[in-house]
Write a structure and sequence with these properties.
It is a single chain. With 199 residues, the chain is an alpha+beta fold. 32% of the residues lie in helices and 30% in strands. A seven-stranded mixed beta sheet has the order 1-2-3-4-5-9-8, with helices on both faces. It has a two-stranded antiparallel sheet with strand order 6-7. Strand 6 and strand 7 form a beta hairpin.
């Protein structure tokens, strides 16, 4: 399959149940792998569903659709000034410095579509929004106890990144250390990519 076979679009409210099902399947797989990234059942809780529904309503929730079958291949959300990101990034960047990015969250690729370059495609989509929204970084995170995903973000999430001189260079995500949530004790690994302004 090629990237032309996939369409990134906003999630529709009537897709909320399937969106949650995709997140829950990912949570169940993570638990089976002892990754403890997400706890199964979390996304079915009323407050979680309200949060996701609000993201859908504000056009910050997305699906990647396989166009020929109209199947949802992946889901993700984009945050701008979320309290979770403030908790995770402000210790590194300061009380205002963390606000200079778009943050990618709840990124899941369905098993049948894994290995087809969808994650880099999603990150490229988000990266293109960075200058449009007046930001300069693309950031995301994962649990610190997930070495395979951390390696994937560092080594495989690559794309042609525009430099200030107008040229392009293939770059990955830079890992910016880990931070332990003082409220939960959970350690997260932080990743970012600087997105130079469009010429």
């Amino acid at each position: 399959m090629t990237h032309q076979e996939f369409l990134i679009r906003n999630t529709e409210l009537e897709e909320l149940d399937e969106y949650v099902n995709i997140l829950e399947r990912a949570a169940e797989w993570m638990e089976s792998q002892k990754l403890a990234q997400w706890i199964p059942g979390t996304f079915r809780q009323p407050d979680a569903q309200t949060h996701i529904a609000n993201a859908i309503a504000s056009k910050n929730s997305y699906v990647v659709e396989h166009q020929s079958t109209k199947t949802i291949a992946a889901v993700f959300a984009l945050n701008y000034e979320d309290p979770f990101d403030e908790m995770l990034w402000s210790p590194l960047l300061g009380p205002e410095g963390w606000k200079d990015a778009i943050y990618v969250h709840r990124l899941v690729v369905e098993k049948a579509f894994q290995g087809q370059g969808i994650v880099p495609m999603i990150l490229k989509f988000a990266e293109d929004l960075v200058p449009q929204r007046g930001k300069i970084y693309l950031r995301l995170d994962c649990r610190g106890n997930n070495p395979n995903l951390r390696k994937f973000y560092r080594e495989k999430c690559r794309g042609n990144v525009r430099l200030e001189d107008g040229s392009e260079r293939v770059m990955g995500l830079e890992e910016r250390g880990t931070y332990r949530n003082p409220a939960t004790g959970i350690e997260y690994a932080r990743f970012e990519r600087l997105v130079p302004p469009q010429q």
